[in-house]
TrEMBL record, chain A:
The chain crosses the membrane at residues 25-46, 67-90, 110-134, 146-171, 197-221, 233-262, 282-306, 318-344, 350-369, 389-411, 431-448, 460-482, 502-525, 597-616, 622-639. PANTHER family: CYTOCHROME BO(3) UBIQUINOL OXIDASE SUBUNIT 1 (PTHR10422:SF35), CYTOCHROME C OXIDASE SUBUNIT 1 (PTHR10422). One of its GO terms (biological process) is aerobic respiration. Belongs to the heme-copper respiratory oxidase family. GO terms for molecular function: cytochrome bo3 ubiquinol oxidase activity; cytochrome-c oxidase activity; heme binding; metal ion binding. It is an enzyme of class 1 (oxidoreductase). Its EC number is 1.9.3.1. It holds the Pfam family COX1. Keywords: Cell membrane, Copper, Electron transport, Heme, Iron, Membrane, Metal-binding, Oxidoreductase, Respiratory chain, Transmembrane, Transmembrane helix, Transport. The lineage of its organism: Bacteria, Pseudomonadati, Pseudomonadota, Gammaproteobacteria, Lysobacterales. Residues 48-567 form the Cytochrome oxidase subunit I profile domain. It is a multi-pass membrane protein. GO terms for cellular component: plasma membrane. This is Cytochrome-c oxidase.
UniProtKB/TrEMBL annotation, chain B:
It is found in: Cell membrane. Pfam families: COX3. Cytochrome bo(3) ubiquinol terminal oxidase is the component of the aerobic respiratory chain of E.coli that predominates when cells are grown at high aeration. Has proton pump activity across the membrane in addition to electron transfer, pumping 2 protons/electron. This is Cytochrome bo(3) ubiquinol oxidase subunit 3. Heterooctamer of two A chains, two B chains, two C chains and two D chains.
UniProtKB/TrEMBL annotation, chain C:
Its main location: membrane. This is Cytochrome bo(3) ubiquinol oxidase subunit 4. The chain crosses the membrane at residues 14-34, 40-62, 74-96. Cytochrome bo(3) ubiquinol terminal oxidase is the component of the aerobic respiratory chain of E.coli that predominates when cells are grown at high aeration. Has proton pump activity across the membrane in addition to electron transfer, pumping 2 protons/electron. Keywords: Cell membrane, Membrane, Oxidoreductase, Transmembrane, Transmembrane helix. One of its GO terms (molecular function) is cytochrome bo3 ubiquinol oxidase activity. One of its GO terms (biological process) is electron transport coupled proton transport. It comes from the Bacteria. It is a multi-pass membrane protein. Signal peptide: none annotated.
Amino acid sequence: MRIEVLAGPWLGRLSLSALPTDSPVAAGAALVAVLGALGVAGYITAKGRWGYLWREWFTSVDHKRIGIMYVVLALVMLARAVIEALVMRLQQADAINQSGFISAEHFGQLFSTHGSIMIFFMAMPFLTGVINYVMPLQIGARDVSFPVLNSISLMLTAAGAALVMISLVLAPFSTGGWSGYAPFTELRFSPGVGVDYWIWAVTLSSIGSTLTGINFAVTIYKKRAPGMHLFRMPLFCWTALCTSILMIFAMPALTVATALLALDRYLGMHFFTSGGGGNMMVYANLFWLFGHPEVYIVVLPSFGVFSELFSTFSAKKLYGYTSLVLATMTIAVLSFTVWLHHFFTMGQSAHINAAFGIATMLIGIPTGVKVYDWILTMFRGRVRFTTPLLWGLAFLVTFVIGGLSGILLAIPPVDFLVHNTTFLVAHFHNMLIPGTLFGMIAAYQFWFPKAFGFRLEERWGRVAFGCWVTGFYLAFMPLYVLGLEGMPRRSAEVFDEAFRPWLLLAAGGAVLIVLGMAALVLQLAMSIRHRDRNRVTVGDPWDGRSLEWSTSSPPPEYNFAEVPEVEGRDAFWTMKRSGRAYPALDRYAPILLPENSAIGPWLGVLGLATAFGLVWRIGWMAGLGTAGALFAVIGWSFVRRSGRTVGERQVERTETRWHAALVAAVPVSREHECDPRNRGLADVAA
Amino acid sequence: MSVGSTTGKRRHPGLNLHESDAHPSDGEVMFGFWVFMMSDAVLFALLFAVYASLGVNTAGGPGPHDVFELGPAAMETLLLLLSSFTFGIASLAMKYRRGMALLQGMLALTLLLGLGFLGLEVHDFATLQGKGALPQVSAFLSAFYALVPTHFLHVSLGCVWIVVMMVQLRMSGLDRTTRTRLLRLGLFWHFLDIVWVMIFSFVFLRGML
Amino acid sequence: MDGDGGFRRELRDYVVGLVLALGLSGAAFALVAWDPWPARTTLGVVAALAVLQLVAHFRCFLHIDLKQSHRDDLQLILFTAVIIGLMVAGSLWIIFNQNQRMM
């Protein structure tokens, strides 16, 4: 009875039967999600922090705060997706000639959410967050070009992530994988709301990412400090620029793919259906027009991070700067020429496969150039094996292995043999875990002291590193073997006893990775607890080379009291060596900053309402959400904003306090950079 | 007062304003809008590619020859091209300070032409429905209804934007904000023209051949 | 301030743009209406007219030209054209090839 009341016309297809009560695992996950959300909300309420969060964070347009919020979002989603991975590995280790502990339907949802989250709600927010935080500081800017747009992008991405989290409670999610291939995802074969969840979550995030790409590209083009020519930018900014360009030009393909799929599902059109003249191959084509550049969107920023790490921790300038820049640009352009290698087996002629296979192998060349450049950066340097650098080393070795298996896959006949097996799963995890995740974790370890004013504990960082890297090899190397033995990917059950030892090994690796995740959490908790002994207020704990290290830690909201003049590459390093770092200003000027704005969170909420209404066919909600968003934007355009001025007095107070800490700090040599003596002032004489 | 932008000394070309009216960071806004339009251009290009891929799949339903008509398409083209011209005059009225009456009048004329275009298109869509050419009939029609109405939607948003600008001009006259907004609206409006040229050439004219 | 001269010069740009736009579109429509040539030829000419009109719009309405100071936008547009070319040409190559093999 009650269910019918709930399923009234104003609730569309939504009813109590959406609750995942049939499976204990799914119900448990939903419960954890609900309790987690309630717990966090309860904690904030108890502490009376809602007002603070709203004023200082949610409505903030400061690129640093937005960057931090992106990374927090990414870490939360990472936790969920890693646990899902563990459940899948345990299921496969268990379900050999028996049905295992979760249903095939549930397994399908798991690999779909795992993939979608890892790409759209972990990798993308993580790299967007890091670029947001670091890039403006590195080019000597006070903010990005469009600070309010930045907040809107964040909130749209968060709305997409929220939709995926909601699907845990009001189930089900799609079983169509992260790529949502038609015609399986068409209404006829996936009649439930799962695919709709996927469509709208991904669409929200792709709109957010397109806007982010525009914002970053314009910032890098137009907001560089005087003297910061393009070819003087730190390499991380170059990778940020190329990633932004890829976002600008590749994201529309995803938007078109999901929009047309939605038209098929909602209005009964025939783009990708099996009948009515539809062509499912057009979907695969559109999706990978986005999907392949996407691979480089998530990999390039890590390349930038590692470039910074290798040179900083080897105390050497980057070897082959120009070749690294050219390699990055080449990769960005070539990434638009290889998308077909994701569907070699779709039935086109051999000569087309050959063309795209060759294009794919070509990408290996600039990537190889980069690897040599990084190795040569360390060559004869004074390499310090800090936690961030360890991730870098693990990346170098692991990424090359993954790259080699990629060259194998670029050969169409080989691809035909291992197509749709776990060999492929092993390959792309072998690229994306070191190439994206390790890079982002390294970035987190490297720039955390910049953002929060204290270093992360090395010891737990090393434990996390050990668990992740060992766990990675254990979890994914067996999948190469299994793939060659013919195990299909995405199988809820397998029927070959010979797979058992490898699947057990892989499950063990997944357990280790979850432990690595736990070690990261512990590291953070321990570091917050012992923050006083790890403070690096002065701001330069690693003897850094680029401008972000020339500010206090954390940097003031205006970043630079006076925008620095740049005279070459490694700007801050040169300043330190020539005694021009930390100039004392005798006069301070007032600084104009953008005002906070509530339009971002509002558009996020309205976007979420629209998407939720569309998923469950709740017409009024979708309509109100869309109309609300339109009116919010129009209304906002009538508000006159003059910006917020930080007075010279306040600038002076902040700067004086920092200079006092600077004078009090003892310069620390590199041998002591990981112990409490390090207050963030580098000994440049050493 | 020191403002974040420092490389803005080089004026941006899309900034078709007098030196005295242009603020250094306005170039940034214009360039950002250009980048957005290029992203939007990719979106349209892909819809064209989908149309080209699926256009032959009429699945026994009506084909391009049965549903397209030259007359209305030519009329729509005329209205849209004229509206680009009237918007151009509006931009000049703003740049050379030829008075608010001319500026508002030209915007109103542009709006009318835009609405006329939309009206004709609505009529077209209704005629198509009358001929049984619904988007659900075939992949060809689905692709058509994805491409042309997306342009229609863009023009509608452009019309809303013109109305908003007319109100804002009335409220606060020409200042930095309204000036750059009008410039961006101009880019958007001219850009939609280009998309329409592609639509009539590669959808209507090609379909009539 | 370059008062009247500038206004007239720029007005002329727009007038030229309008005349070109109307002329080129008119020619394309007329060609299809009268249909004097085989379809393939007409299609080629219509496509060429469309490209010409695209250039005319960029030049006269969007003020894109080859001046040094306008290079940012020009490069952006050319890069976009390359990407669009890769995407559209590649897609059609793949899909038409598959269509052919399914016949």
